[in-house]
């Protein structure tokens, strides 16, 4: 198993290019199977989660082939309809195949994702939405069995604006009979990117990016070409890293409008940030001011950057309050940050961080994807030796060559066999 080793203390400088968004590419690949053709998707990041969805889709009869700089997804035939436990347990987003399989194939058998390190993460709202559209579902031996001869459009209110739940229902509704209205829908850019792809396939969708999405079902969809949006979480990770390490970094191939809440907070901490077209330039502050954050659904501060921002606040001047409102257990990185000397108190969904002059290098253990990124950031500023981040398979799920990108910016970071 690999580990990442970091000798902290180098300022970052130069340019870094952002990859395609994992959380947009996953539903877009799943949506490809709504048509019986070959869609070509560009800007698909090279990540473990992408390999996982490809492996599951291959078992359904779908073929993948590199075509120029795109990924051709051949969906002419669906031969199976099962997403097995051994793959779903490594990636909860496999549930994104439920809506498309039901809509195109009329049947799906998907392993029920269990809880994960950041929370219980139920999928009741996905199931409630699909049941309201006429799907018959039951749970047996850990699998959701779902069937629907023809889904029917209806009005669905989501108690929580779930991202993958909105995506699942939206995908299913494209081939349903009649109109589906999703109220309290997720507004994330990844939902909008999926809607753009579905429209390119011939779907009729309105209102994505707002909390009411209307989908008018069509008889069939056709294959399409699409370029996945840049990963706002990867971009945000570099914005925070640049501000944390000092120096001057330009993040290219990104969309600053997807990061408004994050940029505002990093500027409040003292960094100077400028934008031009698809570039964000960050100059780190002399002194890092402490700033409070509260995670919220988009366009609020993303939960997927909470851990990285906490690492930043560990070396700020003063106290900051970090509130997590999306997942009930997303502070597991705290005990690892404490190993580097951070002072953090947790009280329910709130973490009070007392900024220190410096963090001290130590071995730490990654526990989930974003927690791993937080530990890498902390390692980049930790003094007095080498920080080793273990269990980085979590990191490889969602960051493309993170250590190489940091190396290019001048960081002393490398991968070793543990
Ligand atoms: N929830 C329910 N019932 C449901 C669905 C969700 O109670 O049926 C709750 C969850 O337990 C959570 C809240 O609603 O407390 C929001 O969860 P959501 O469903 O929006 O999360 P998700 O769709 O499972 C996606 C991303 C996550 C990201 C969250 C929040 C993908 C593949 N995953 O998950 O990304 O943190 O939205 O923005 O899009 C990551 O990339 O590291 C990651 C965890």
Highest-level CATH class of the largest domain = Alpha Beta
Q: How many discrete domains?
A: 2
Strand arrangement across the biggest beta sheet: 22-23-1-24
Instruction: Write the CATH fold name of the largest domain.
Output: UDP-n-acetylglucosamine1-carboxyvinyl-transferase, Chain
Bound molecules: uridine-diphosphate-2(N-acetylglucosaminyl) butyric acid
**Most strands sheet:** 4 strands, mixed
Distance between the termini: 6 Å
| Unreliable sequence segments | none
Mean of all residue-level pLDDT scores: 96
Structural class: alpha/beta
Please give the radius of gyration in angstroms. Answer: 21 Å
Helicity range: 25-40%
CATH H-level homologous superfamily name of the largest domain: Enolpyruvate transferase domain
Describe the structure.
The chain is an alpha/beta fold and 418 residues long. The protein has 2 domains: 2-19 and 230-417, Enolpyruvate transferase domain (UDP-n-acetylglucosamine1-carboxyvinyl-transferase, Chain), CATH 3.65.10; 22-227, Enolpyruvate transferase domain (UDP-n-acetylglucosamine1-carboxyvinyl-transferase, Chain, Alpha-beta prism). It is 31% helix and 26% strand. It has 14 helices and 24 strands. The strands form 6 sheets. It has a 4-stranded mixed sheet with strand order 22-23-1-24, covered by helices on one side. A hairpin with a 2-residue loop joins strand 4 (63-67) and strand 5. Helix 4 (98-105) packs parallel to helix 6 (163-173) and helix 10 (306-313) packs parallel to helix 12. It is elongated. It starts with a strand and ends with a strand. It binds uridine-diphosphate-2(N-acetylglucosaminyl) butyric acid (EPU). Uridine-diphosphate-2(N-acetylglucosaminyl) butyric acid is lined by residues 23, 26, 93, 119, 121-126, 160, 162-165, 190, 303-304, 326-327, 369-370, 398.
């Amino acid at each position: 198993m690999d580990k990442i080793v970091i000798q902290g203390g180098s300022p970052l400088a130069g340019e870094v290019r952002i990859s395609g968004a994992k959380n947009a590419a996953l539903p877009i690949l799943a949506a490809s199977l709504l048509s019986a053709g070959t869609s070509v998707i560009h800007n698909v990041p090279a990540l473990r989660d992408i390999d996982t969805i490809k492996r599951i889709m291959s078992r359904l009869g779908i073929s993948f082939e590199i075509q120029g700089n795109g990924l051709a997804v051949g969906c002419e035939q669906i031969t199976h309809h099962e997403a097995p436990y051994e793959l779903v347990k490594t990636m909860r987003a496999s549930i994104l195949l439920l809506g498309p399989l039901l809509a195109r194939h009329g049947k799906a058998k998907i392993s029920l994702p269990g809880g994960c390190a950041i929370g219980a993460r139920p999928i009741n709202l996905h199931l409630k939405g699909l049941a309201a559209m006429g799907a018959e579902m039951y749970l047996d031996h850990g699998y959701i069995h779902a069937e629907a001869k023809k889904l029917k459009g209806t009005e669905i209110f989501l108690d929580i604006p779930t991202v993958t739940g909105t995506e699942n229902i939206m995908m299913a509704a494209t081939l349903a009979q009649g109109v589906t209205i999703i109220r309290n829908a997720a507004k994330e850019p990844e939902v909008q990117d999926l809607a753009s792809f579905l429209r390119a396939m011939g779907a009729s969708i309105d209102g994505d990016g707002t909390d009411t999405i209307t989908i008018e079902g069509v008889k069939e969809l056709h294959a399409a070409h699409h370029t996945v949006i840049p990963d706002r979480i990867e971009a945000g990770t570099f914005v925070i890293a640049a501000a944390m390490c000092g120096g001057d970094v330009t993040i290219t191939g990104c969309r600053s409008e997807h990061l408004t809440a994050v940029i505002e907070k990093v500027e409040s901490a003292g960094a100077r940030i400028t934008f031009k077209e698809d570039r964000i330039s960050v100059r780190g502050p002399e002194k890092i001011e402490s700033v409070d954050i509260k995670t919220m659904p988009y366009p609020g501060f993303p939960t997927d950057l909470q851990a990285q921002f906490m690492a930043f606040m560990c070396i700020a001047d003063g106290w900051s309050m970090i509130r997590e409102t999306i997942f009930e257990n997303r502070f597991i990185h705290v005990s690892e940050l404490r190993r580097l000397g951070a002072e953090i108190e947790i009280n329910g969904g709130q973490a009070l961080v007392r900024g220190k002059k410096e963090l001290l290098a130590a071995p730490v253990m990654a526990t989930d994807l974003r927690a791993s990124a937080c530990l890498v950031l902390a390692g980049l500023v930790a003094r007095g030796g080498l920080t080793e981040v273990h269990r980085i398979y979590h990191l490889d799920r969602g960051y493309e060559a993170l250590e190489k990108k940091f190396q290019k910016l001048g960081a002393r970071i490398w991968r070793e066999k543990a």
